[in-house]
Every structure is written in structure tokens, then in C-alpha cells.
Design a protein that fits this description.
Rossmann fold, alpha/beta, 434 Repressor (Amino-terminal Domain), about 40% helix, 6-stranded mixed β-sheet
């Protein structure tokens, strides 16, 4: 015998409409009621009929996860295979938000506004991955479906954004080195003119270390670390620097592997490669999983008729091995 929504409602002591909202717009239901419905569903073995749910709300039942094609850039971190783990964490966040709902997630790679508008006619909402320029933001304006943009934007960039705070992340980097009693750090970065998050991280770091030594390099290119190994070794030997901070983990970890530096160091991104190292080492985790989990919940609220509200997820410090 198939378990019905009404049976779940009876066990949970809620209305059938509340059961429906739990599986379609969970953020519109209070945590106690949501928990009661999910508990009753599990006890009874209830699984929502996705097709029926789509017909009832006269929608497609589809959330579109959109990744924009980044073309014509001298540097884009998302094109590096070593950052595929970051994408995976983001998807896990989305999965966590919709696992108890009847929504389906579909993936798209988009390049033009026309493609985006066409997609909008075949889904109920759009979750955009790593929108980071005003030009990209403009692609989403005037869409006929709700959308949420993430994650390298300011909260003022659009009405519906869930973003990180890169300036605060730079502050966290500096605070870590301050706790190690460092006074003369080297900050390694690159593409400051074109990559706004890099600018923001550096400014946050400089708020605590205004006289830091700054070294720009071609981040992500094979020759980048080779170009600076000698400089770092000389600066360390001469006592010019007593610690290292880098705009991302990839740059820092490659430098540490090739230089065998034992200086207190901190990267950015909270990547899984930290097990290769020991010593006073840390990273800043922007919490991509949490960002995209919240972005998905925000999108479900928008689809349900709520007003857009920008949200900021603060990065955290991951002290790896001390």
C-alpha cells in the first residue's frame, strides 16, 4: 500500500499543505514542523511523487545550476583542474539543501544572455556558480524566473546574492600570522588589476600588516613559482621576511614543496592538500559548501514568492597543523 501525504500529515499533526511545503519550499516551514514532517515521512517510508508535485505547482520542478563560460581572461582559477574539489564542495551544499525536497537539479554551461533567457523558460529557478563581474551580473537582469548569484560578488551587486567576504578573509590571514608573533610577512599574489577578490584579500591583509612585502606573480602558470623561489630564499636568509601568506593554497603549497620553507605560512581556499605539510600552517576556508547550501535555500524562498535578500557567509580560519 502506497503511503500518502495525508498519512504523513496525520502522524506529524500538521496539514497536508505543510507536508507539501516541506518537500518543495522547506525554508518556508519552521524547523520544528519541518523536523516533525521529515520524521513522520521516514517512519512511514513516504517518498514524494516528483511528477505530481511539478504538475500541482505548474512548474518544471527543475532548478538549473548554471556555470558561465569564462572567456578571454588572462587568469581564472576555475579553469585549473586542481580546483575541481571546490566545485564538488559547492554541489554538496546544493545537494544538502534539496535532498528532502522534490526539486531536481540540472547542470548547464552558459555563454550568452540569449542562452540564459532560453533556459529560464525551462526551469523554475537558476542558481549561478561563481558570478564575479558586472558584465556577468548583467546577463541575469530581466530574467522571468528567480535566480541567485554566488560567490565572488559584493552583496550590493544584485538583489539576490549569497557571497563570501574576501576582505575579511585577508584579515583572518593576517590575524593568524600575528598570533605566530610574525612581524615581517611576505604576501604573494597576482593579477591584482583584473581579479577583484585578489585585491580585496590583499587589502584585508594590509589592514593589519600595512608594511608587508608584496610579491606579484603569474598565479596558476607553471613558471610562476620558479620565478620567485630564489627571491623567497634570499629574503628568508637575509631576515627580510619571517612568514608567508598567499592569495590561494595552490600557490603557497607549491612554494612550500619546492622551497622546504619552515616559516609560518597561510594560504586561502581551505583546499584538501594540507596533509602534505606540517608546522605552523593554516588556510582561509570560504565555506563554498555552506555558501551554495544557503544560495539554494534562498532560491527556493524566491520561487515560493519571498523577497530577495543578499546574504554574506563569512570565511573561517582552518588551522591545519600547529
Amino acid at each position: 500500500m502506497q503511503i500518502t501525504r495525508d498519512q504523513v500529515a496525520k502522524m506529524a499533526k500538521v496539514s497536508s499543505a505543510t507536508v507539501s511545503r516541506v518537500f518543495n519550499s522547506p525554508e518556508a516551514v519552521s524547523p520544528p514542523l519541518r523536523e516533525a514532517v521529515l520524521h513522520a515521512s521516514q517512519e512511514l517510508g513516504y517518498t514524494p511523487n516528483k511528477t505530481a508535485g511539478m504538475l500541482r505547482r505548474r512548474g518544471t520542478g527543475v532548478i538549473a545550476f548554471v556555470e558561465l563560460e569564462k572567456v578571454g581572461r588572462p587568469y581564472y582559477w576555475g579553469n585549473l583542474e586542481s580546483f575541481d574539489w571546490f566545485f564538488g564542495r559547492s554541489i554538496r551544499g546544493v545537494q544538502e539543501a534539496i535532498k528532502d525536497t522534490s526539486w531536481q537539479l540540472m547542470f548547464y554551461k552558459i555563454r550568452t544572455k540569449m542562452e540564459l533567457q532560453t533556459l529560464g523558460r525551462h526551469c523554475d529557478g537558476i542558481l549561478a556558480y561563481d558570478v564575479d563581474t558586472e558584465e556577468e551580473v548583467s546577463l541575469f537582469r530581466d530574467l522571468t524566473v528567480p535566480y541567485v548569484l554566488s560567490h565572488h560578488l559584493s552583496k550590493e551587486a544584485a538583489a539576490s546574492v549569497v557571497v563570501t567576504d574576501n576582505y575579511y578573509g585577508g584579515v583572518l590571514q593576517a590575524q593568524f600570522l600575528k598570533r605566530q608573533l610574525c612581524t615581517s610577512p611576505l604576501y604573494i599574489t597576482g593579477y591584482l588589476e583584473s581579479v577583484v577578490p585578489h585585491q580585496q584579500r590583499l587589502q584585508g591583509f594590509l589592514s593589519l600588516f600595512p608594511d608587508t612585502h608584496i610579491l606579484e606573480t603569474h598565479i596558476g602558470k607553471p613558471e610562476a613559482i620558479l620565478d620567485i623561489l630564489g627571491m623567497v630564499a634570499t629574503m628568508t636568509q637575509d631576515g627580510v621576511i619571517d612568514s608567508i601568506a598567499a592569495v590561494n593554497d595552490l600557490t603557497l603549497f607549491e612554494l612550500l614543496l619546492k622551497s622546504r620553507s619552515a616559516l609560518p605560512s597561510i594560504g586561502y581556499d581551505g583546499s584538501p592538500f594540507y596533509r602534505l605539510f606540517s608546522g605552523p600552517l593554516a588556510s582561509v576556508d570560504i565555506q563554498s559548501g555552506e555558501i551554495y547550501k544557503r544560495a539554494t535555500k534562498e532560491l527556493l524562498l524566491l520561487i515560493g514568492g519571498s523577497e530577495a535578500e543578499p546574504k554574506v557567509v563569512l570565511p573561517t580560519l582552518a588551522e591545519l597543523f600547529l
